[in-house]
């Protein structure tokens, strides 16, 4: 079996399984990259299973992974890592999981167990929340992975590489204290660079380091 080339061309040969993480902000092309890797695994005649957090239902609905440019592949919607474990096809050689930041901490154990059983595990997720802080289990997944690709979008304000998710509530930057996951709320997101990212704090004095 070829090693965790990560779709980037290089790679090294390993006997068993491994974990690949595709991290980055929204619009950075994580779903596109996950779809590309899944398609290539299918061309290589690997048995592939795709899961995604049910929390993300943009565009194609819950039974698809969709990229912002409308590319899609079928996916099994799940609410937890345990649900993935229950639905794993024992013959699957490649397990892909999109929107991994929404899953509970069990996803780290699950990915590790699958890799130890010889599976290639591909996880895509937003590694920082709207505050620019680590999101869910993404930091742990990035630590245990053999390969991590951190993708960038384009800052909608200045055109620089974007590494932050700007949350807007009614068109205004969302305050630091607003909840990380707002299901069904009228919020929207933009890709921004660090310099253009705005997160107002109630207590503006706190956090001054220098
Ligand atoms: P992710 O899964 O990381 O949210 P997607 O794969 O769904 O990303 O979408 C990436 C696509 O989004 C790009 O190929 C591009 O067509 C589109 N896009 C829209 N806004 C931006 C932006 N600000 N920066 C980069 N790509 C963007
Ligand atoms: Zn910018």
Summarize the structure in words.
The chain is α/β, with parallel strands linked by helices. The chain has one domain: Rossmann fold. 19% of the residues lie in helices and 27% in strands. The chain contains four helices and 13 strands. It has helices spanning 30-43, 81-87, 106-116, 138-144; strands spanning 18-24, 48-53, 64-66, 72-74, 76-78, 94-98, 120-125, 147-151, 153-154, 161-162, 164-169, 172-173, 187-192. The protein starts with 17 loop residues before the first strand and ends in an 18-residue tail after the last strand. Mean pLDDT is 87; it is low at 5-14. Bound molecules: adenosine-5'-diphosphate and zinc ion. Adenosine-5'-diphosphate (ADP) binds at residues 24, 26-32, 67-69, 153-154, 156, 191.
List keywords for this structure.
binds adenosine-5'-diphosphate; 4 helices; 210 residues; alpha/beta; 6-stranded parallel beta sheet; 13 strands; binds zinc ion; elongated; 3-stranded antiparallel beta sheet; Rossmann fold
Tell me the layout of helices and strands.
Layout: E1 18-24, H1 30-43, E2 48-53, E3 64-66, E4 72-74, E5 76-78, H2 81-87, E6 94-98, H3 106-116, E7 120-125, H4 138-144, E8 147-151, E9 153-154, E10 161-162, E11 164-169, E12 172-173, E13 187-192
Parallel strand pairs: 1-7, 1-8, 2-5, 2-6, 6-7
Antiparallel strand pairs: 3-4, 9-10, 11-12, 11-13
This protein binds adenosine-5'-diphosphate (ADP) and zinc ion (ZN).
Zinc ion is lined by residues 155, 157-158, 160, 192-193, 195-196.
